From TrEMBL:
Keyword vocabulary terms for this entry: Chromophore
Keyword rRNA-binding: no
Protein name (Swiss-Prot/TrEMBL): CRYD protein
Positions in coiled-coil regions: none
Lineage top rank: taxon: Eukaryota
């Protein structure tokens, strides 16, 4: 979870993620973790800036051959 996604927006400081969306996200992550666990896998969940968290995970795991990510499209006003 990137803390920057829960701050205010650029223009009016409106919350990017309200309480209902946050609850949905947390329930979705919990459900995904439980589903993966039933299939013999797991889900790594971290809080922090992705550029820091991913670097730390790669360092910790040591044998990473690929990293895939997406970038949020931002509307320019």
């Amino acid at each position: 979870f990137d803390p920057r996604h829960y701050l205010g927006t650029h223009c009016y400081s409106l919350p990017k993620t309200g309480p209902h969306r946050l609850r949905f996200l947390l329930e979705s992550v919990k459900d995904l973790r439980e589903t993966l666990k039933k299939k013999g896998s797991t889900l790594v969940v971290r809080k922090g800036k992705p550029e820091d968290v991913v670097h730390d995970l790669i360092t910790q795991l040591g044998s990473v051959t690929a990293v895939v990510f997406h970038e949020e499209v931002r509307e320019i006003l």
